[in-house]
């Protein structure tokens, strides 16, 4: 489907199934975290998936390409992002499989039916509202700082909207791990699988990928580390595989 780009927009190739995504040249664009999360998520055939804070719709599009899920819903509070995500679904011919809903994560339990999703994903804002320099660009600030929602809101939404034994998949900063694990367990969502991500082999982890199960038993698997760079400007082989690139093509 051919689509007219608006001022300041660009159409980016996602490198999988010929899919593309609309993004702002000077606005918030998806990063590696979303791509890593999309490869960590497991969705069974016929599964219904909700992405909390979907932004440009990158996770629903990537998960549609990578998993056998039946339907993918993205919840996003920013109207401009909602329209962009809807148009990205349309440009890929995915209007029947991907639905973008405008709404607030803190009110998600009133928007969707309870106990209705097999999988929930989230790449939530990493920074507490008073931490670090806040980007003057509103969309970027909302994406990176807990301006409009806190992690507790994501956890509570998952508690209400996941089916029993359904999974929450998220990516977050390693320094907030203890807080996040505590929050999830308080909401009855048991951390079951974690993978730490490292920029280089000799550096400390900066982010982690986590799967937590609603009503799950207490036992967590720690997966092998994921290393991003072999050396400056050269990804590790696993990162190239996740992106579907070959080193000579980058």
Quick recap:
With 250 residues, the chain is an alpha/beta fold. The chain has helices spanning 32-40, 58-66, 79-91, 108-111, 138-144, 151-161, 177-186, 237-243; strands at residues 9-13, 20-24, 48-52, 71-76, 98-102, 117-122, 162-173, 189-198, 207-214, 221-222, 226-227, 229-231, 234-235.
How would you explain this protein's 3D organization?
By secondary structure, the protein is of the alpha/beta class. It contains 8 helices and 13 strands. Strands 3, 4, 5, 6, 7, 8, 9, 10 and 11 form a 9-stranded mixed β-sheet that branches. Strands 1-2 form a two-stranded antiparallel sheet. A two-stranded antiparallel sheet has the order 12-13. Strand 1 and strand 2 form a beta hairpin. Helix 1 runs parallel beside helix 2. The chain is globular. About 6% of the residues have low confidence.
Task: Report the structural category.
Answer: alpha/beta
Anisotropy-based shape? globular
Uncertain residue segments:
131-135, 137-146
Q: Counting H and I runs of at least 4 residues, what is the number of helices?
A: 8
Q: Whole-Å distance between the termini?
A: 27 Å
The topology string of helices and strands comes to: EEHEHEHEHEHHEHEEEEEEH
How much helical structure, as a percent, in the residues?
25-40%
Q: What proportion strand? A: 25-35%
Radius of gyration: 17 Å
- Please summarize the sheet with the most strands: 9 strands, mixed
- Kindly state the number of beta strands: 13
Task: Return the average pLDDT rounded to an integer.
Answer: 90
């Amino acid at each position: 489907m051919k689509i007219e780009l608006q001022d300041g927009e660009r159409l980016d190739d996602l490198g999988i199934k010929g899919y593309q995504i609309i993004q702002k040249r000077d606005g918030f664009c998806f990063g590696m975290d979303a791509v890593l999360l999309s490869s960590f998520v497991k969705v069974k055939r016929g599964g219904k998936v909700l992405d909390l804070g979907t932004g440009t719709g990158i996770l629903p599009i990537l998960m549609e390409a990578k998993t056998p899920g039946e339907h993918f819903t993205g919840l996003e509070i920013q109207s401009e992002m909602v329209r962009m995500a809807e148009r990205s679904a349309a440009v890929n011919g995915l209007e029947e499989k991907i639905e973008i809903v405008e709404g607030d994560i803190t009110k998600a339990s009133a928007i969707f039916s309870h106990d209705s999703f097999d999988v929930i994903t989230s790449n939530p804002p990493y920074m507490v509202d008073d931490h670090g320099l806040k980007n003057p660009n509103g969309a970027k600030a909302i994406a990176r700082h807990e301006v409009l929602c806190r992690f507790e809101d994501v956890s509570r939404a998952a508690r209400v909207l996941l089916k029993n034994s359904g999974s929450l998949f998220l990516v977050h900063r390693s320094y907030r791990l203890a807080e996040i694990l505590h929050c999830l367990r308080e909401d009855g969502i048991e951390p079951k699988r974690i993978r730490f991500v490292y920029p280089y082999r000799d550096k400390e982890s900066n982010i982690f990928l986590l799967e937590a199960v609603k009503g799950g038993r207490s036992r967590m698997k720690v997966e092998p580390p994921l290393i991003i760079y072999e050396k400056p400007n050269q990804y590790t082989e696993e990162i190239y595989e996740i992106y579907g690139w070959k080193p000579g093509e980058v």
